[in-house]
Amino acid sequence: MAEERREVAAEEVERQEDLEDGAENGESNQVVKISQGIFSGPLPPPQVLQGYEDILPGAAERILQMAEQEQSHRHAFDNELGRSVTRQQERGQVFAFVLGAGALGLAAFMVWSGHPGYAITTTIAAIGTLAASLIYRRRAKSPAEEAGESSDQQRQDR
Asked: Could you tell me the pLDDT band of residue 82, with boundaries at 50, 70 and 90?
């Protein structure tokens, strides 16, 4: 990397020397400067926004409205996503409770009917299933979720 920088710098010095030599010999030289700007986000920098407005009156207002609509859409999406995740978690908790209560009821029935071995097996299977579900869910979390980042922060990182 450092060698490439030195080579580029050496080429620039040679080009500059060639331009100076040509100017001394009466030749005309042209220097072209090319610049590039990059921005990220819903709105361009003020200078660019003013340029749009100069070219097409009302364009800056339309760009601002577009950014506001995008933000409203994102907020609505995030809210719906939050509600959906909450409903899914609630259903999972209800299902786990029903499964656990059913297994314990079945185990109690087995003890009452004289099959304590089956009761122990049923109880261990039910508890093992619930524990495995919790362990799997915790391992399936992404690193961003573990760090506690919101979906908005994740989107900005992209």
From this structure: very high
